[in-house]
Amino acid sequence: MGENTIVNIDYSNPLSETTKLELGLEARDEKTDNSFDVDYLYNSDFNYRRTIYSGYATYGKQWNKWSMQAGTRIEQYDVDALFRKANENDAPFKDAIFTLYPSAFLTYTPTDKNSFNLNYSRRVDRPSIQQINPIREWSTPVIDSKGNPDLVPQFTNSIELNYTRKTKIGSITSGVFYRIIQDEIARVVYGNPVDPNKQVLSYDNFDNNNAYGIELSGNLDFTKWWSANIGLDAYGKKVKGTVETTRGTLEYVEIDALIFNARMNNTFKATKNLRIQLFEMYRGRDRSLQFDRKPTWKIDMGSSYTILKGKGTISARFSDIFRSMNFAFDADKPFERFGQFNWESRTVYVGFNYKFGSGKNSALRRKERDKNEAEGGGPM
User: Fold this and answer.
1) Which of 14, 208, 281, 282 has the fewest C-beta atoms under 10 angstroms from its C-beta?
2) What residues form DSSP beta bridges with 126?
3) What is the biggest distance separating any 2 CA atoms in the chain, rounded to whole angstroms?
4) Pairing of strands 143-145, 154-167
5) Whether residue 179 has pLDDT greater than 90
6) Cis peptide upstream of residue 334 (ω within 30 degrees of 0)
7) H/E/C letters for each residue in 201-212?
């Protein structure tokens, strides 16, 4: 059971034709209570509350062929948690972090068809409730999955250089990046302290790691009836941290990995009112300190048909047509193993949308805000 309250306010002021000031405040209050019973008898419960107060200021300016934007976000992050378990002492946890998140963007546009962009940013990925909840999530004869309430947020400092070229069929952007990741949140496996025949699958913070790579993306109109959004990225990373290499033995480990990912989202204009979408993605092999994740892929298909003079839309979507999406892995620490997790990735959706009114009065646009939360739950 949980309660989430979010209150935010944003202010934008164009100081002149070439300058702009943006300000904002936000408060988040998130509470969750989880309990666990064994054979209908009380076993444990976990109460977790975090409050996040933040504010940001951004200043942007344009002159000639140059434009810039600089700003910062300040944040106060507080956590108060309590884990109770039958026949064990209560385990409270508190944390308070005050952080600044600066960002800066510089763009140079020498011609209408060419632009260069250099940017720096600092971001946070906070542990999700699934990642910090110490109550057992699921269990098999050899492994228990649960969270780690001692996780701290993961911070990433990133610098990127991009080049965008406009062509006859659309725009293509290529770029390079370098990222420093502090206290990276990742999956770990270690021996179950109360059962020597089982392991615990959980999360931990690794050492400060880094990644560097290249990205290529494009929005292209190949023909009048076929357009596509394409993305490719390849990057190398060094991961460092302390893990259990054999039962009861902790060891500092470093690994290097090279990852390749690709996606393509196609739109086909069959008729004036009928659109067909085809999405393909490939996620390449990845390595962590204890796991080697195998490649995976999927294909989705959808369509939309406009009716009632443009006010109504019938849409349908078929996700993961070949049921190929999964998490397969092999590992040799703290013991040799391999496995595969499958979930309900194949879904079918059919919907109808109708627009009331003339559509001349657009809704108030809300500033998009990142949840700033690490991926939690699921197998890995």
Assistant:
1) 14
2) 373
3) 72
4) unpaired
5) yes
6) yes
7) EEEEECCCEEEE
